Amino acid sequence: MKIAVLPGDGIGTEIVAEAIKVLKALDLNFEMETALVGGAAYAAHGHPLPESTLKLAKEADAILFGAVGDWKYDNLERRLRPEQAILGLRKNLGLFANFRPAICYEQLVGASSLKPELVAGLDILIIRELTGDIYFGQPRGRRMATDGPFPGAEEAFDTMRYSRPEVERIAHVAFQAARKRSKRVTSVDKANVLETFQFWKDIITEVGQQYPDVSLDHMYVDNAAMQLVKAPKKFDVIVTGNMFGDILSDEASMLTGSIGMLPSASMNASNQGLYEPSHGSAPDIAGKGIANPLATILSAAMMLRFSLNQEAAAQRIEAAVQTVLQQGLRTADIYSEGTTRVSTVEMGSAVVKAL
Ligand code: IPM
Ligand code: MG
User: Fold this and answer.
1) If 62 and its partner were Cys, which of 121, 195, 307, 322 is the partner (CB 3.0–4.6 Å)?
2) Final residue of a domain: which of 239, 259, 279?
3) Ligand 2: distance of its center to the CA of 246 in Å?
4) Average pLDDT over every residue of 165-176
5) What are the Cα distances from residue 1, in Å, to 63, 82, 151, 307?
6) Is 314 in the pocket of ligand 1 (CB under 6 A)?
7) Helix (H, G, I), strand (E, B) or coil at 47
8) Could you report the per-residue pLDDT of 49-74, keeping only the tens digit for each?
9) Is the dihedral of CA 69, 294, 112, 177 positive or negative?
10) Residues with CB under 5 A from ligand 2 (ion)
11) pTM for this structure?
């Protein structure tokens, strides 16, 4: 089992180090190889996704990813920005299906920004399409390398697009995931305004007919954003496009208390996956030793389950995370009175001990 480890920028290196500690403690036979990605790779090699990093990722069974991005790269032309590394990995490896669970741990109900009764027992799965939509349409603007002699452009645009096969395959992923849960899918669109999302809605409906045992409803994205804070437990599986999924998954994560708790998996058609926390590189707290490593540790558990066929080990990690929460250990983002505040490294060590 070969794992490509790409820690990236900001808190990425700190949280990935803890996940590796946990993986090593399992005593399974992994081969792990680390490479630079994002701003760190740009600083060393002049590109956020160097050929060597991409090659390592392609050849691995799974990729454990930290986070990319730093304000100091905000003025770079678009193709050199750290974010291009994760977008490039998703596109090059065909990682089209992004699973972003939002689960509210019993011990963290009080850390949610919503009333406890609204979030207790919350367990939603957001399935975000990851390689299409406005993220990969045709852009033009001041920061594009192709702008050539027009640096002071008077307009900028991006194009939103989906192809039929792209929508069909993510629809199948969503319906199949729902079959293993409570058999309900909500497809989120903006069909009242956007042609792309009328197309999306029609195809989801069509594919849904092959899954008569799964109930399907459609919701506009603005309403979905509202329902997520009004009655989040009404949702089970949410399937949506790249852009809406980006936004709604951040929103859903906060319902659970902290984005620092949420793992994610990005899968391609051959079950190769990239596993990363749902949060970003948080340059404001990087190097302080206060980041929550649990989202990355739980991402490692997802990696064991989905790409490495190690269900028992995945469950061991998840149980160990429950144990440390039960022990009252909390990083700053989930701290509340009466609990014990710990650092990034202490949290990782506590999970290892609980294993
Ligand atoms: C995410 C992030 C990325 C995205 C950025 C870093 C490109 O926000 O994974 O949600 O927009 O997809
Ligand atoms: Mg995001």
Assistant:
1) 307
2) 259
3) 5
4) 98
5) 11, 28, 47, 9
6) no
7) coil
8) 999 999 999 999 999 999 999 999 98
9) positive
10) 246
11) 0.94
Please compute the mean of the pLDDT values over residues 275-302 and round it to a whole number.
96
To test the pocket of ligand 1, the residue of 11, 86, 100, 242 to mutate (highest count of ligand atoms within 8 Å of its CB) is 86
The enclosing domain of 273 has a CATH number of 3.40.718.10
- 109 and 80 both lie in a single domain: no
* Domain containing residue 137: 101-259
Q: How confident is the model at residue 286 (pLDDT cuts 50, 70, 90)?
A: very high
Distance CA 276, CA 152 (A): 37
Supply the pLDDT for residue 143: 75
242 and 290 part of one domain: no
Clarify whether residues 136 and 279 are in a common domain.
no
Domain count across the chain = 2
- pLDDT at residue 84, as a whole number: 95
Ligand in closest contact with the CA of 299: 1
Q: Are 327 and 242 found together in one domain?
A: no
For residue 65, give the 3-state DSSP assignment.
strand
The one-letter amino acid code at 57 reads A
**Catalytic residue set:** 135, 190, 222, 246, 250
What rounded mean pLDDT belongs to the chain? 95
Same domain, 235 and 92: no
Q: Is the CB of 86 under 6 A from ligand 1?
A: yes
Among 213, 237, 259, the domain-final residue is 259
Distance CA 123, CA 52 (A): 38
Distance CA 133, CA 136 (A): 6
Does residue 251 have its Cβ closer than 6 Å to ligand 1? no
